[in-house]
Amino acid sequence: MEIADLLTGPEAVLANVKASSKKALLAELANRIATLLKLDERRLFDRLLERERLGSTGIGGGIAIPHGRLPNIAKPSGLFARLIHPIDFNAIDERPVDIVFLLIAPEGAGADHLKALARVSRLLRDRNLVDKLRATDSAEALYALLIEPVQTQSAA
Question: How far apart are CA 104 and CA 80, in angstroms?
Fold first, then answer.
């Protein structure tokens, strides 16, 4: 599974997001991906909040990977957001978050969901990439950076 498989295109990338809180951010991201994929926004938002109640999806280093499962979606999908100002996300390292990759998967997609989470996590462990993401304020440029490692690997 590759990042390009999770993002529908530059429209699934948000640059310069303003959010006052974790809940406000999750609501905005749920709205955007629900619109893109024609999903029930409220159900998605509720699932994301349920998951956050189990423990923060803030993985450290200013990065969060909120995720949830929903019925009636065909495959794992994602939405990337770069925040203008970091927000408290109750991350494991207690640092505020400014890089967010929202991931949703079909309700019965156990292995695919885990593969998608692992792929996103691997991508965002690349410090050089994360620095470039933080320095970029165009959705198209962010999208290109996110899928670039895949294209480089494919060419090798």
Answer: 12
